[in-house]
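TA notes, week 10

Several of you asked for a full example with nothing omitted. So below is the full record: structure tokens for the whole chain, then the designed sequence directly under it. When grading your own attempts, check the secondary structure regions first.
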């Protein structure tokens, strides 16, 4: 039985615990909080979703070359710069007051990246999630600025230079991503000295801020040490018993060793092995990465989709879900009954045609709904099948020999 316990806080914005809220409050107090206004002051206020401007993309294209160069430098800075700091991720959804996720990030130039995230919904004393990049070629990146995602961003949006600004008390260069109709999709503040991303805001089509990511308490150095208790070897960071087999009813281990990211040819070859590997998903999301790991209950495949701003991970594992999952509740999305994880509500899972699909989303709700609807689902039982089940249950109640 496959259970989606192998998932961790990957790209989902999770509801903050009290410890997270305290950390965010302290961070904002230390930095004065994101200011209000435009690029010169670091973006809209943090009191809730704000509005972004709208301007014809064609009128901003003279700055496109500079914007492309700055984003490329930002992606490279995430690899070659040694840094550490706190990433504060705030997400808003319709009717929501916002959820917060706080992570400590350490990166050594050309080497390992370690992300330590306080897992929402658990006590502050519990073991945090540790992830690592051991070769420096594919770090998770700060605020989602990586080489593959920058390339997708430039494919799906018009990027323009918006001038100088301030972010977390540092001078910055501001780059905007605009949709084909000229509406503002995102705004990035890149550190003037290092080009490392310091702040990012993402806007919906109605010009409301739906996410704000800030990299605070940043320290740059020739050599940044990993946190106490974290070994430079990725294998050394695994919890005790990480590679030991789990029981049949236990969830797969969330921190098993993943393969190196697959090439495009390897991704396409997965189809011959019976995996569903769509090249595109709704919302303009393109397949850009993938990897697999061996869990106690089978192989787990992780496929990454993005348009440069929204990111969705689709996990696939052969098997069927239990009828109930602790920490998950049933909801209806795109006409299908699925499970959603509490409290983050950005992790969704269900069974479909002998496969368990789990979606971890950092994307607008309408995009997530469309993706869920596009993937396979088990059909609900038909009328006569339901009647047969009902008669069987009725017979079991009145049969004294059962």
């Amino acid at each position: 039985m496959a259970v989606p316990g192998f998932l961790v806080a990957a790209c989902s914005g999770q509801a903050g615990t009290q410890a997270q809220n305290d950390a965010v409050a302290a961070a904002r107090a230390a930095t004065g909080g994101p200011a209000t206004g435009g690029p010169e002051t670091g973006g809209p206020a943090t009191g809730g979703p704000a509005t972004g401007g709208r301007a014809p993309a064609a009128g901003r294209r003279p700055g496109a070359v500079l914007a492309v160069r700055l984003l490329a430098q930002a992606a490279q800075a995430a690899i070659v710069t040694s840094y550490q700091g706190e990433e504060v991720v705030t997400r808003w959804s319709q009717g929501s007051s916002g959820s917060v996720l706080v992570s400590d990030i350490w990166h050594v130039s050309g080497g390992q990246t370690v992300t330590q995230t306080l897992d929402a919904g658990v006590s502050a004393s519990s073991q945090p999630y540790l992830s690592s990049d051991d070769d420096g070629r594919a770090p998770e990146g700060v605020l989602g600025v990586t080489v593959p995602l920058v390339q997708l961003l430039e494919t799906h949006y018009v990027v323009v230079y918006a001038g100088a600004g301030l972010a977390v008390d540092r001078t910055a260069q501001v780059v905007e991503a605009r949709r084909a109709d000229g509406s503002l999709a995102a705004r990035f503040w890149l550190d003037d000295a290092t080009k490392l991303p310091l702040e990012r805001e993402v806007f919906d089509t109605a010009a409301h801020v739906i996410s704000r990511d800030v990299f605070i308490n940043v320290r740059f150095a020739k050599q940044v040490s990993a946190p106490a208790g974290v070994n430079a070897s990725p294998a050394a960071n695994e919890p005790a018993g990480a590679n030991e087999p789990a029981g049949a009813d236990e969830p797969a281990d969330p921190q098993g060793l993943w393969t190196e990211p697959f090439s495009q040819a390897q991704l396409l070859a997965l189809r011959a092995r019976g995996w569903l590997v769509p090249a595109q998903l709704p919302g303009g999301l393109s397949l850009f990465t993938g990897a697999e790991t061996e869990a106690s209950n089978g192989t787990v495949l992780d496929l990454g989709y993005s348009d440069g701003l929204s990111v969705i991970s689709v996990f696939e594992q052969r098997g069927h879900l239990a009828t109930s999952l602790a920490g998950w509740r049933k909801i209806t999305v795109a006409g299908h009954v699925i499970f959603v994880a509490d409290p983050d509500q950005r992790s969704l899972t269900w069974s479909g045609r002998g496969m368990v699909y789990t979606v971890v989303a950092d994307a607008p709700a309408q995009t997530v709904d469309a993706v869920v609807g596009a993937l396979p689902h088990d059909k609900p039982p038909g009328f006569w099948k339901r009647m047969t089940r009902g008669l069987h249950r009725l017979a079991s109640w009145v049969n004294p020999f059962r």
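The domain at 241-374 is CATH 3.30.200.100 (Phosphorylase Kinase; domain 1). Use that as a sanity check on your answer.
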